[in-house]
Amino acid sequence: MSNIKVYYRTIRDLPLDEYLAPGSSACWGCGPLLAARWVTKVVGSNAIIVTATGCLYGVTAVYPYSSWKHPMIHVAFGNAPSVASGVETAIKVLKRKGEWDAGDTKVVVIAGDGATVDIGFGALSGMLERRHGVAYVLYDNEAYMSTGIQRSGSTPMYAWTTTTEIGKVRKGKLEPKKDVLSIILAHNPIYAASTTVAHIMDLANKVKKAVEYSSYGPTFVHILAPCPTGWKYDESLTIEIAKLAVETGMWFNLEYEDGKLRVTTKVPKRKPVKEYLSLQGRFSHLTDDDIKIIQQMVDENVKKINEIVGEEAIGPLA
Amino acid sequence: MSEEIELLEEVSGAKGRRRLPLTGDYAAAYAVKAADVDVVAAYPITPQTPIVERISKFIADGELNAEMIHVESEHSALSACIGASAAGARVFTATSAQGLELMHEVINIASGMRLPIVMAVVARALSAPVSIHGDYGDVMSMKDTGWIIMIASNAQEVYDFIIMAFKIAENPSVLLPTAVAFDGFLTSHVMEPVEIYDDDYVRKFIPKSKWPHVLDPRKPLTMNATALPEWYYEIRYQVIDALNKSYNVIREVMNEFNKYFNRNYRILDAYHMDDAEYALITYGAMWGFAREAIDRARARGVKVGGINFNLLRPIPTDKVVDLLSNVKSFIVIDKAFGYGAAGPLFTDIAAVLKIYDINTPGVSATHGIGQRTMFVKDFERAIDLVVKVGNEGKSLKNVVHLGLRGWGETL
Amino acid sequence: MHVSNEGELAKWYEIPIAGVVNEPGNTAKIIVSGWRTFKPVIDQDKCTRCGICWMYCPEGAIKYVNKPYSTKKGINYGFTYEIDYDHCKGCRICVVECPVKAINAVREHE
After folding, report:
1. In-domain check, residue B297
2. In this complex, which chains have at least 3 CB pairs below 8 Å with chain B?
3. Taking CB atoms and an 8 Å limit, are A29 and C91 in contact across chains?
4. Which tens digits make up the pLDDT trace of B130-153?
5. How many CB atoms lie within 10 A of CB B237?
6. What total number of domains does chain B contain?
7. Helix, strand or coil, per DSSP, at residue B195
8. What residues 78-97 of chain A have any CB closer than 8 A to a CB of chain C?
């Protein structure tokens, strides 16, 4: 299984056909939309997409319009993994009975952090435990964006959201971001990875791998997808912010394949977290002490990930 | 000679017919096997567990070519059924009480998406307090969800109604999820002689079909988009229309079933109603008590008749009007509470009578809540009550709670 | 969002079953040019056809077209990237990401 090749080496190898039509009501500079555009391009035409309620579904499927050129089913907020389990099982049985004539159809879930890390968490765990052949793509914009920027388990520490307001007594989210990838890894998926919308070549290859591997069991790709409306930054900076997330060590691009975890985007000299945080209005209330605490947290995480992968993949502060 | 008999048996469906001692739950499992279901996604809950257990055994023995998704919650059970049905598979699930309540977010979605899912609801009382025993509180909580709801009164009906349910649900003018409900424990766990048919014979009655809205990469479509105020009303109205149209389909399927399998099912069972002056109305396992009480009353010269509802949704309006226009009074024994209102089936019937300007006085009664033990003498008391109301010509203002200790003391 | 005309909306029986959308990708009919404050304009002479703007546009509003182009300096390209102004929302990610600064943000309404 580990001799699955690198699919796209240069930009010229990337597929040209668009499977997510423009004209949706996504905000300008929407990270999740960019992520979904590439997921649908890379997946190929023989796939069924399952979405969960969230920003991406909300802006792309409003009757009588739909941006999706794949067959797409949406059911509810917390059950995308279960619906995907049902679709995958139906295809399996119908194939066995000689009643599925669309060939080797892949099942891909595209869901947000709200649906994955919070309300659909149990369903996701069940889907992974049952080893369904589903590729699960999580676009992480770090809050319940479509309902107006409320915090989710994936919201980073100290971030402002409408439910973690900056007030006289409390300032921002007090809990750290839920490490969903570690929990996924504990389920032993066939393949798992994390990437950002700034690393499209990386994203395309990882999603393609996830879809190919999904013939053997569950796969998972976690995509950091910045949101200008919720993170409060100028919409033209989506890519820059995602790049900085990796360059400061606030986000790691990882790959779990053949039972081994490795860092795919190495950072020899880390930028201080202040460069990432200062660009975003949701962190504008941070004091220098707050930033120090976040820097310490990142330093800890970097130490941990280097230990796990067995090399200094993420370097020291520049 | 034996060849002729074999051919006759094959044509009449007598071939392969066997009588097995089955509980209601097992009968449901046998029906699922006969229907050649593709995907079963269910979560165990008392008193439904024997259904999923028996289906698992069928699959493990290779007697049913299906996959069972052992989901981690009932919410996921119905969600997985929706996914599988949307991909074109024939699906089945089963649940009770708290499981049904957990499913509720997805129940309306199943009907709105017009997917022919068949579900067995083993009627169980709702918490709090916790009760694993049988009453229809859970079934009544799904009355207004767009599902077709049938109620079986014994194990044979469970087997037969579930087979019918697939034909009804998958009918192109219906395409609605269908529930077959039956009493927890009183039907689900009581062993009765059930006549099961040859699986292939059943499958000829319910051949597989393709519904028009199916997830197919060659014909992409988007299912369950958001509908703003200018669209929701119309899209949701389609469910209402399908439910209304389903009534004739249910009658036709029932008639076809009766002919094909040599049975005698009716949408409403009528017992001694031809010359009845008073009507006793029930559903589910209570029907046995009702008929015994009616026999005893008739022996005393009381002209009472009984009606058993095999269909809760859509309400069989014409039959209700037919049977209740010429009686002096009626009593409905609901095996579920109506909260802040009269009993659930009573309320439905009262609405029908009002719409048709039929002024028959009635009594709303409940019994068997949380599987409170019912006695025939309770039903005899119910008959005395309906006779009294019939002779006085005025409905009873209060709901009568039969079998409730301390009821009536503060009235 | 689409603009609908009272009286032209479908009746309940004209809507496909369960309200499925069976025109895949029909949001392409919606024109979002009105969202823009700034419009990105590609200087085709400066553009090196690297494809980064095409890659990073969230809408997919930058199209790869098989249009050969010769720059004033005599460089010949076999293809070109063009902006679909019906579907560009003016986020200017392309302006920021272009490595040779070949895209300018031009104010929509002077």
Report:
1. yes
2. A, C
3. yes
4. 999 999 999 999 999 999 999 999
5. 14
6. 2
7. strand
8. none
| pLDDT given for residue A2 in this prediction | 55
Q: Which residues of C touch A (CB under 8 A)?
A: 1-2, 10, 19, 21, 23-32, 35, 50-52, 55-61, 64, 84, 87, 89-93, 95-97
Q: Which residues of B touch A134 (CB under 8 A)?
A: none
List the domain range (segments joined by +) for residue B48: 16-261
Q: Go through chain A and tell me how many residues it has.
A: 318
Is B408 among the domain residues? no
Query: Cβ–Cβ of C93/A235 closer than 8 Å?
Result: yes
Q: How far is A220 from B252, CA to CA, in rounded Å?
A: 48
Which of C14, C21, C22, C27 to probe by mutation at the A interface, max A CB count within 10 Å? C27
- SS3 string of chain A? CCCCCCCCCCHHHCCCCCCECCCCCCCCCCHHHHHHHHHHHHHCCCEEEEECCCHHHHHHEECCEECECCCEEECCCCCHHHHHHHHHHHHHHHHHCCCCCCCCCEEEEEEEHHHHHHHCHHHHHHHHHCCCCCEEEEEECCCECCCCCECCCCCCCCCCECCECECCCCECCCCCCCCHHHHHHHCCCCEEEEEECCCHHHHHHHHHHHHHHCCCCCEEEEEECCCHHHHCCCHHHHHHHHHHHHHCCCCCCEEEECCEEEECCCECCECCHHHHHCCCHHHCCCCHHHHHHHHHHHHHHHHHHHHHHCCCCECCEC
**What architecture is the A13-309 domain classified under in CATH?**
3-Layer(aba) Sandwich (3.40)
Q: Which residues pair with B304 in a beta bridge?
A: B278
At B285-332, the pLDDT tens digits run 999 999 999 999 999 999 999 999 999 999 999 999 999 999 999 999
Percent of chain A topping pLDDT 70: 99
Q: Which residues pair with A220 in a beta bridge?
A: A136, A192
My answer on whether B341 and B210 are in the same domain is: no
Residue of B40, B76, B119 best to disrupt the A interface, most CBs of A under 10 A: B76
Chain B CB contacts of C19 under 8 Å are 112, 224-225, 227, 231, 235, 238
How many CA atoms does the CB half-sphere of B209 hold within 13 Å?
18
Place of tokens 């919070």: A118
What pTM was estimated for this model as a whole?
A: 0.95
Shortest alpha-carbon distance between residue A30 and chain C (Å): 6
What are chain C's domains? 30-107 (3.30.70.20)
How many Å is the maximal CA-CA distance in chain B? 73
Chain A nearest CA to B78, separation (Å): 9
Name residues whose C-beta falls within 8 Å of residue B66's C-beta, 6 or more positions apart in sequence.
Answer: A93, B36, B37, B38, B39, B40, B55, B59
Strand, coil or helix: what is B224? coil
Task: State which amino acid sits at residue A240.
Answer: E
Residue B245 forms contact with C (CB below 8 Å):
no
- What lies within 8 Å, CB to CB, of B132 at 6+ separation is B46, B47, B124, B184
pLDDT value of residue B318: 96
Confidence of residue B392 (pLDDT cuts 50, 70, 90): very high
Q: Which of B211, B229, B261 is the last residue of a domain?
A: B261
Q: How far apart are the CA of A51 and the nearest CA of chain B, in angstroms?
A: 10
CA distance C19 to chain B (A): 6
Cβ contacts of B112 on chain C, cutoff 8 Å: 18-19
Using CB atoms, pick whichever of B77, B89, B217 lies closest to residue A45.
B217
Q: C77 vs chain A: nearest CA distance in angstroms?
A: 14
ipTM of model: 0.96
Distance CA B160, CA B167 (A): 11
User: Do residue A85 and residue B41 have CB atoms under 8 angstroms apart?
Assistant: yes
Say which residue the tokens 């001692």 belong to: B21
